[in-house]
Amino acid sequence: MEDILPYLRLVHGAFNAAMILLIFYQGRLGLAIRRARRLKKAFPLARVKRHRKIGPKLRFLILFGFLFGLILALVNERSLFAYPFHFFVGLTIVLLLFTTYIISRKIKGPDSPFRTPHFILGLCILLLSAIQLVLGLGILL
After folding, report:
1. Positive/negative CA dihedral, 119, 51, 132, 83
2. How would you classify residue 56: left for phi > 0, otherwise alpha for psi between -120 and 50, otherwise beta?
3. Cβ(13)–Cβ(140) under 8 Å?
4. Most buried among 2, 39, 97, 139, using CB within 10 Å?
């Protein structure tokens, strides 16, 4: 088992780096939708459909990556808190993703009061994802 741990760490890092790229793509879609709505431009139906389709799947993929990291930490370091800041930033991202999803289900109509909290949580997820990427690289390198 000891001989495959370095490879599993790389798999965890590569998988989560791909998830972070998808988070930024999802954020880009969301910003384009928000911009079109606020500027009263044509409704970007294709982007909305893509944003709604990717979001729930991405949430579970990121949860999977987080849980894989937990298992790796337990096997490799015998502690969840071997990398406490990386752990808590990852946990916060997962919690924000699930909160964002719950809020998104309440968005009804163009003037929904849940749009701004959804937007703010999305920005927080983007910021924390960038931080998490730097922290993860610091652990791997």
Report:
1. positive
2. alpha
3. yes
4. 97
Give CA–CA dist 120/104, Å, rounded: 12
Residue type, 35: R
Model pLDDT for residues 38-70, shown as the tens digit of each residue: 998 998 999 999 999 999 999 999 999 999 999
pTM for this prediction: 0.92
Contact by Cβ (8 Å): 30, 122: yes
> How many domains, in total, are found in the chain?
1
**Spatial CB neighbours of 17, under 8 Å, sequence gap ≥ 6:** 133, 136
Range of the domain at 78: 5-140
Give the angle 72-78-81 at the CA atoms, nearest 5°.
80
Please answer whether residues 103 and 121 qualify as being in contact, where contact means their C-beta atoms are separated by less than 8 angstroms. yes
**Start-end of H helices in the chain:** 5-38, 45-77, 84-104, 115-140
